[in-house]
Specification:
It is globular and about 55 Å long. By secondary structure, the protein is an alpha/beta fold. The protein starts with a helix and ends in an 8-residue tail after the last strand. Strand 2, helix 4 (about 85-95) and strand 3 form a beta-alpha-beta unit. The strands form 2 sheets. A 6-stranded parallel beta sheet has the order 2-3-4-5-6-7. It has helices at about 5-10, 20-25, 30-45, 85-95, 115-130, 145-150, 165-170, 180-190, 210-220, 250-260, 270-275, 280-285, 300, 320-330; strands spanning about 50, 55-60, 100-105, 135, 155-160, 195-200, 225-230, 290, 335. The protein binds 5'-deoxyadenosine and FE2/S2 (inorganic) cluster. FE2/S2 (inorganic) cluster (FES) binds next to helix 14.
């Protein structure tokens, strides 16, 4: 089939075969029709609304050693920091006043924050901001731990699967980590009742088109509420220092494909996309994304949460993100709303 027919088929929600997906993913001509169809569906479901999440990166300590990540344990050149409960609550206060109704608490896998500490932080936020959603993004934990955070008041959890190919997974992670456990965590989170987000990097080292297709198939099995994808970006203090960045164009194409495969899904236009292209986040919205996750962390720690090189919104301009985003979203033809931004069921 011609690509145009494939896009038509995808838009009509007819399942594409692996070969058909491969043909759309590997085309070298820019398909405006793919983007237009994705945007049409996005507007049918979410109108021109863009949901925002205030991201609080509360610790960059990590016990893991993922080969692609700048805050991996073995990077001795990064300055480590931890925020106190009070600092985290201050971020929430500031975020609330700026119109954020979802707070995302993200960190490396930092055992300093025991379940008790995490639950205490969650309960305080929950008490103070009953109408807000609390999202955690703190990695792989036991089902019991996930359960305790949920009971303390967390509603959502982000854990990208990173790649759903066993072989590819082992090229990106040291032996002590396993894809099996990661997938187990995702299913545990769903069972407990969290709204779950997963996803992967586009163009991570050794990734093939077949791997991406496997990622799409895994997502079809998991049925997450949110899917986070962004281009892989090299970090010079990692074993992948000499690898290439992922492609902006392929990321945009994948955002459109995801919107067509999962019409109702929450799809962020990521900071990584904005890092590789000055209008990356706007292009992401136009390709089908409907969520932005600006940073709410205190300005003085932002540069330290350096999972990849040249991350945007970490300098002098950082305090202005809310206004900057407002303008960018309008210029792309959408508008930011003050809303929890739950998934449409
Ligand atoms: N480039 C792009 N994204 C990265 N992540 C980690 N390292 C990088 C990198 N070098 C992504 C992972 C992780 C999320 C928080 O950031 O997918 O799940
Ligand atoms: Fe952060 Fe533009 S969004 S400065």
């Amino acid at each position: 089939m011609e690509n145009n027919d494939l896009i038509e088929k995808l838009t009509k929600r007819n399942n594409l075969s692996d070969d058909e997906l491969k043909s759309i993913l590997e085309t070298n001509k820019y398909d405006e029709s793919l983007r237009i169809n994705a945007d049409k569906i996005r507007r049918e479901i979410y109108g021109d609304k863009v949901f925002v999440r205030g991201l609080i990166e509360f610790s960059n300590y990590c016990k893991n050693n993922c080969y692609y990540c700048g805050i991996r344990r073995d990077n001795k050149n990064t300055i480590r920091y931890r925020l106190t409960k009070e600092q985290i609550l201050n971020c929430c206060d500031e975020g609330y006043n700026l119109g954020f109704r979802t707070f995302v608490l993200q960190s490396g896998e930092d055992l300093f924050y025991t379940d008790e500490v995490i639950c205490d932080i969650i309960s305080e936020i929950r008490n103070k901001y009953q109408e807000c959603a609390i999202t955690l993004s703190i990695g792989e934990k036991s089902k019991k731990s996930y359960q305790s955070y949920f009971e303390a008041g967390a509603n959502r959890y982000l854990l990208r699967h990173e790649t759903s190919s066993q072989e590819h997974y082992s090229k990106l992670h040291p032996r002590e980590m396993s894809l099996e456990n990661r997938k187990k965590c995702l299913f545990n989170l769903k069972e407990i009742g969290y709204q779950v987000g997963s996803g992967f990097m586009v163009g991570s080292p050794f990734q093939t088109t077949e791997n991406i297709i496997e990622d799409l198939r895994f997502l079809q099995e998991l049925k997450p509420d949110m899917i986070g994808i962004g281009p892989y970006i090299t970090h010079k203090e990692t074993p992948f220092a000499n690898s290439n960045n992922g492609s902006v164009e392929l990321t945009l194409r994948l955002l459109s494909i995801l919107r067509l495969l999962f019409p109702k899904v929450l799809l962020p236009s990521t900071t990584a996309l904005g890092t590789l292209h000055p209008q990356g986040r706007e292009l992401g919205l136009k390709a089908g994304a409907n969520v932005l996750m600006p940073n709410l962390s205190p300005v003085d720690v932002r540069k330290k949460y350096n999972i990849y090189d040249n991350k945007i919104c970490t300098g002098e301009e950082a305090a202005q993100c809310r206004n900057c985003l407002e303008r960018r979203v309008l210029s792309a033809g959408y508008k930011i709303v003050t809303d929890r931004g739950d998934v449409k069921k």
